[in-house]
Write a structure and sequence with these properties.
Distance between the termini: 74 Å
Structural class: mainly alpha
Radius of gyration: 19 Å
Strand content: under 5%
Protein name: TetR/AcrR family transcriptional regulator
Keywords: DNA-binding, Transcription, Transcription regulation
Order of helices and strands: HHHHHHHHH
GO molecular function: DNA-binding transcription factor activity; transcription cis-regulatory region binding
Number of domains: 2
Domain HTH tetR-type: 16-76
Largest sheet: none
Mean pLDDT: 83
Shape: elongated
Pfam families: TetR_C_11 (PF16859), TetR_N (PF00440)
Length: 181
């Protein structure tokens, strides 16, 4: 009797090490050069991998940049539950502001948004999902995901891209307060 086993997917090992090395290389290069000047060969050299490893995993530079831009804002991270929608949204918005006040994260967002082209970026899709989760806890609010995206997320993203010096400790409270006027 011959036994046949199906190879299992590796969730760690070399694949995880390559992903980590590439993400680290992208973040370092974006910090040093800006996202518009980074190339796949530069990333591969810095990460110590062959460029084909990057193309095989991500396909192209825009997809890689979009993936790295959304990596830090993990859509599976727990969202605070303070018992009030306003407090939950303020806490959530504060996390976005804190994240994007870091220059490398802002540069990755710019690169990821540009890389998205005519499709919605993972970053915005994930923020929409999170806003939906927060709203689902408080259906009595009558608010929609579009309202949260337009009134809370859009001003934050606008500031990250065009006026990063205006992101401060009061930004989250200010944009969320507009939603409850």
């Amino acid at each position: 009797m011959t036994s046949t086993t199906t190879p299992s997917k590796r969730t760690g090992g070399r694949s995880a090490a390559v992903i980590h090395s590439v993400r680290t290389a992208v973040e370092e290069l974006v910090r040093e050069k800006g996202s518009e000047r980074v190339t796949v060969p530069m990333i591969a050299e810095r990460a110590g991998v062959n460029p084909t490893s990057i193309y095989r995993r991500w396909g192209d530079l825009p997809t890689l940049i979009n993936d790295i831009a959304t990596y830090h804002l993990d859509p599976d991270r727990p969202l605070a539950d303070h018992g009030s929608l306003r407090d939950d949204l303020t806490d959530w918005a504060r996390g976005l502001v804190t994240h994007f006040r870091k220059p490398v994260n802002a540069a990755l967002l710019r690169g990821g948004a540009g890389a998205a082209g005519d499709r919605q970026s993972d970053c915005l899709r994930n923020r929409r999902t999170e806003s939906g989760m927060l709203l689902a806890r408080h259906p009595e609010s009558g608010l929609t995901e579009d309202e949260v995206m337009d009134v809370v997320v859009a001003p934050i993203i606008y500031r990250v891209i065009f006026q990063p010096w205006t992101l401060d400790d009061s930004t989250a409270e200010t944009v969320v307060a507009r939603l409850f006027r």
